TrEMBL record:
Domain of life from the UniProt record: Bacteria
Chain ranges passing through the membrane: 14-36, 87-105, 111-130, 142-161, 167-192, 212-236, 248-266, 273-293, 337-357, 369-388
Stored InterPro entries: Prepilin_IV_endopep_pep (IPR000045), Prepilin_pept_A24_N (IPR010627), Prepilin_peptidase/N-MTase (IPR050882)
Name this protein carries in UniProt: Prepilin peptidase
Membrane-protein topology: Multi-pass membrane protein
Keyword Heme belongs to the record: no
Family of this protein: Belongs to the peptidase A24 family.
Residues in Prepilin type IV endopeptidase peptidase domain copies: 118-235, 244-353
Amino acid sequence: MRIVAYTAGVTPDVLLVIFAALLGLLVGSFSNVLIWRLPRGESIAFPPSHCPNCDHRLGVTDLVPVLSWLSLGGKCRYCRAPIKARYPVVELLTGLGYGVIAALFPPLVVGWGALGLMVLFTILLVGSAIDLDTYTIPDELTLPGTALGILFGFLNGRAGAEGLPDLAGAVQGALLGAGLVVAINQFGSWVLRRFRERSFPESPIGYQQISLALLAGAWLGPWWGLGAALLSAAVNGAARRAVRVPELLTLGGLLVSVVLGSAGYGPGMILMVQGALAAAGATSLVAGVYWWLKYRGRSADEGADEGADEPADASAMGFGDVKLAAVIGAFLGWERLLLTLVVAVFAGALFGVAQLAMKRENRVKFGPFLAVGALVAMIWGAQIIQGYRDGLGL
């Protein structure tokens, strides 16, 4: 009788939180597969799970999240090689993350948006773990992740619950996310190169086309800006070489354009900035897809070797961060994306100061800080944004 009474007192929301946590443990186990295989260019489906040391295929009892690691004492059943503690940690974090999301964003209220946030959590965790290991974020994670974010925007409907974006908001968030981060990269790289032109421009599409999209998008809007970038890429393809588009013209022209926009010329400063960033974001994603398809299957080490002979083209941040920002913008919308970047920059600065105080080299990439910022924006973003609006009297 007491068991029946207790069960009857459990609400559907509580059951969903428990189910989400259990689901998270299972997804966490699969996340470990992604963390190991994606940087190495391996299939995530074949061969089945096996020990990376002895290649022995793992049985069902070896794959129970957390419990298998504990029962085996953190060692392989077959060769006794140590199993990293990261495996149960990733599983526990995913289980905890999914449970918290289900509690804060009840699936019965939020609908598909709750599942979308769980997918985003997995992408952030997997991307951060890979970034910490290899200093890269695989395109196989971020580009499909951006598409999934837009899909969940469509599933969210016209008025996304809990401030989550609809389809238009997801597209806008993805473009502005990629565009804002790549614009920081473009100007930061230009400054690091002391305003010299790139020594190794990409062909047919790359940073030069992104800079062109920034300028064209400011005056013509995002889609015409993308069109100008694609036209430049077509010229490169026809010439079979990189036909230079001077950054003094594109990046310098954008700065002049913003000044003119603030003075009342053209569409206006705000619309010009939005158009420039969205055009650059769209071009970045097109370029990302192009280079992903061209070099698909290469490992992270091969990718690093590919660019090792181009030190003159200094970069302010990795291009993987650009695509990760697109993922975050697609799932959370542009307002929470801005909050993500503010938190990420602040957290990165604090970590950098701590590293300097301990006299250690700061080699952590920006991806994990973006993930931290996205989690803060996901959980507290609505309250922070509303508080900001109230402070401005909006």
